[in-house]
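From the pipeline queue, job 12 of 40. The input is one protein chain; the requested action is below.

Action: predict structure.
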Amino acid sequence: MRVKQIEDLPMATSAELYQLSWVIEQLMADPRRIVQARSQLHMGQLVQYWDWGTGKLREARIVAMKDRQATLIDELSKQRFSVLYAAIVPAEEQPNGSTATSSSPASATPLRPPPEINRKQDFQIGQRVSFPDQSLKRHVGQIVRLNQRTATVHCDGRAWRVGFGLLQHVADVTS
C-alpha cells in the first residue's frame, strides 16, 4: 500500500472508512483469490499470519484447510484458531530473516492479479484435465459429463465431481 494513502486515512470520514472496509471485504472474498492462496499452502506447512490483535506477523502451522479459512496452531502459544486465507503469508512471500514485523512482505514482490476462473464453456466431454482434491493433491483425468456447475471427471478408477473453477486443461506433449 502506498504510504501517502495510509497517512490520509485518519482524515477520512467514518462513511468513507466503512465504504473502504466493504470494498476490501469484497476483494478478499473473491473465489479467485481464495483459490490462489490455497494453491500455495498445504497441511503441516509452517507459515506466518497477520495477528489481528497486535498487527504483527506470527508463526503457526496449518492443521486444517476449509473453504474460506485455514485452521492454524500458533507456534508460541500452541493455541488452535481459524483465520482467513488473506491473513496467511506463504513461505515464498516471507521476508528474509523474518521475525514478527509489521512491514508489508508484499512490497518486495510485484503484485499480480488473481488467476482467471474457468467456466463450463471452456471444457468439452473427452478432454483431459487436472484438479486438486480437498488436501490439494493433484489428479489427472478425463471429463465424462458436463453438469450445471461441475464436471464429472474419471481418474484412478473413480468418478469425481469437480467445479469448473478448479479444473485446468492438460496439454498432451507426446509426439
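Job complete. The chain is about 15% helix and 35% strand.
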